[in-house]
Each structure stands twice: as structure tokens, then as C-alpha cells.
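A.,

Following up on our hallway conversation. C-alpha cells first:
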């Protein structure tokens, strides 16, 4: 078959999130594997586009030639059920789902039902669905009626990176994630407020562009905690490998993760982890490499952090276990090969 592929995505492909990072790495390596990849931006507004934005996005894709192979990022595709229904016989449509849109934090029940129905209807029109975790695969099979044989799991790859040296005095707690409600930075800051009797510093790395309201709330929360001199809201950092390398603990209180690339990156650089047992996080973080607590529980999150801060021997043992687990993670070429094979199988 032809190795021509259209990759369609919402907004700006250079956006610094785990999902867009996955897209960029896979696109590059698919090119190395012989695919001619045409990039099409579907514009702004997703996953909640206006009628005009949705129409414009569909029009861009409907201009493609008959039989074109189209891989659409799920952040947009979940809202494009009408377009998918109209073009499913003419185009070879494959979806890339990082996590189901209905599981996003902060949407009300009516909106959640509407988003689930739209995404379910869109996925029904695909020739295949690529997901980034076994958890998301199970979710789509159970609640979105996607046949298991049409789902391919391609977990994110890892880049070579130095192991964290640790040994900071005071210990440095690192958190990486966009400043959105789902990432739970408010829970982390609330937990840190319960640890003011201990010695530590915390660096929160992540862009505030996607939700400026949440970013402002976090700045106020950090200032009002009285710990502003110990909590650094560092903003966006393009290459985070040096951030992991100089930290002692990785902590992220996500309310949901379809995979959680930053947890895998923390493992790869040998950091002990404090996170929440939600979504795919328990699948990514081995029990001997981190402490996972219920989401939205600052008290439990603080207790887990306290244990690692007060027990350096536990911290070191979990760091060693993290490095061992991280060494077993796939490369980005492994990930792209899975996707390449699945695209070749589409008919």
C-alpha cells in the first residue's frame, strides 16, 4: 500500500503538552520509516469548538482525495462525529486517542454525556483506533463500543536521559504538568501546606496558557499558603530532562491520566514518585517505585510526601526501583513501529 498519511490535529502542534509531544515524536519517526506525512491543523477551539470552527475543520479534511489515510488526534476527533459519519466510506479514518474526552476534569454531567455520545459516534466510523495505554483501550472497549480487534495500544516512548543524582539539601520536589485542573497542582500545594514543618523546596513546571484562570488560582494559592518562597511556579520548560535530573522526588496529583508520560519520564530518570491511583497511573508506576493515593485527597498526598521526605532510605530504594522500571520502557521508535504497522493494516 501507499505510505502516504495525513495527520490532523487541533491547534498548534508545538503546544507543550504530553499529547502533542507524543504526536510530534511519532510524526518524525514515521517519516524516518518511509511515511510521507502531511500535517493539517484543524484550527482552534477543540475539544469544544464553535459551530464555525467545527465546520472549518471538517471542510479542510473533506478536501482530501478519495481513499486518503487520515490519522486524527482524538482531542479534535471526538467532536467530529458528523464529519466522520459523512466521510467514513470515502476516507480511511483512524483515531489517535490519548484519553477519552468525557473523562476530562471540570465538565458537568450534561456536557459529559454529550461528549461521550459524540466521541462514541465518531469512533464508530473509524477503520482503527490507536490508544496510548491499556487503560484507555479497556475504556473504549467497555464504554464506547469499539471492538477490541480495532484497538492498537502504542504507549509513549522514552528518550535517553541522565539518572537523577538526588541528595539535595533541602530535598527538591518536582512536579511537571500543564496548569489545568486535571493535573491537580492545587492538591499538591494544599498537601505542601501540611508539610511546612519539614525541609523541602518544590518546583512546578508547566504552561499556564491552556487555562489562564487555573494558572492564576494556583499563583494565589501558593502566595496565600505562606510558602511562596519554597514553591516555584516555573512556567513552561521545553526540555525537562534537566529538571528531572536535579530533583529528589517527582510528585503530581493528577485527577485522571490516560497514560501519564511524565510519570514514565520520572521512572526513566530514576525518581521516586508520589501520585494518584487514577486512570493509567497505577499501570505506569510500579508499587516499589512510588506511592499512589486516592485523587483529590491533600491529606493522603501529604502523608505520602512526608514518608519520602522523612525516610531517605525508602526514597533511595524507590529511586532504584524506578530506574530499573524506566530502563524497560520502549523507545519512541518502538512506539512509532507499532503505529506504522497498524496503519499499514488499515484497508
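Then the amino acids I'd put at each of the 347 positions:
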Amino acid at each position: 500500500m501507499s505510505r502516504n498519511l495525513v495527520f490532523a490535529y487541533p491547534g498548534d502542534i508545538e503546544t507543550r503538552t504530553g499529547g502533542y509531544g507524543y504526536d510530534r515524536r511519532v510524526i518524525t519517526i514515521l517519516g524516518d520509516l518511509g511515511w510521507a506525512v502531511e500535517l493539517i491543523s484543524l484550527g482552534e477551539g477543540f475539544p469544544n469548538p464553535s459551530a464555525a470552527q467545527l465546520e472549518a475543520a471538517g471542510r479542510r479534511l473533506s478536501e482530501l482525495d478519495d481513499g486518503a489515510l487520515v490519522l486524527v488526534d482524538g482531542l479534535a476527533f471526538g467532536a467530529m462525529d458528523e464529519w466522520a459519519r459523512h466521510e467514513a466510506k470515502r476516507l480511511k479514518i483512524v483515531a489517535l486517542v490519548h484519553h477519552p474526552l468525557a473523562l476530562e476534569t471540570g465538565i458537568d454531567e450534561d456536557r459529559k454525556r454529550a461528549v461521550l455520545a459524540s466521541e462514541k459516534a465518531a469512533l464508530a466510523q473509524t477503520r482503527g483506533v490507536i490508544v496510548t495505554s491499556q487503560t484507555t483501550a479497556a475504556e473504549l472497549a467497555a464504554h464506547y463500543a469499539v471492538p477490541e480487534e480495532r484497538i492498537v495500544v502504542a504507549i509513549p516512548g522514552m528518550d535517553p536521559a541522565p539518572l537523577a543524582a538526588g541528595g539535595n539539601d533541602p530535598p527538591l520536589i518536582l512536579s511537571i504538568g500543564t496548569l489545568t485542573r486535571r493535573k491537580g497542582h492545587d492538591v499538591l500545594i494544599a498537601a505542601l501546606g501540611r508539610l511546612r514543618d519539614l525541609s523541602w523546596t518544590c518546583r512546578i513546571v508547566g504552561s499556564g496558557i491552556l487555562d489562564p484562570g487555573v494558572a492564576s488560582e494556583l499563583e494565589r494559592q501558593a502566595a496565600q499558603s505562606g510558602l511562596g518562597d519554597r514553591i516555584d511556579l516555573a512556567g513552561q520548560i521545553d526540555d525537562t530532562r534537566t529538571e528531572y535530573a536535579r530533583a529528589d522526588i517527582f510528585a503530581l496529583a493528577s485527577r485522571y491520566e490516560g497514560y501519564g508520560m511524565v510519570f514514565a519520564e520520572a521512572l526513566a530518570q530514576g525518581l521516586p514518585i508520589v501520585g494518584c491511583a487514577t486512570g493509567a497511573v497505577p499501570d505506569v508506576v510500579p508499587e516499589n517505585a512510588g506511592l499512589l493515593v486516592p485523587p483529590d485527597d491533600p491529606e493522603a498526598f501529604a502523608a505520602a510526601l512526608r514518608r519520602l521526605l522523612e525516610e531517605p532510605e525508602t526514597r533511595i530504594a524507590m529511586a532504584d526501583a524506578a530506574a530499573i522500571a524506566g530502563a524497560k520502557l520502549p523507545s519512541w521508535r518502538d512506539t512509532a513501529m507499532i503505529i506504522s504497522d497498524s496503519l499499514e493494516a488499515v484497508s
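The chain has a mean pLDDT of 95. Curious whether your intuition agrees with the design.

B.
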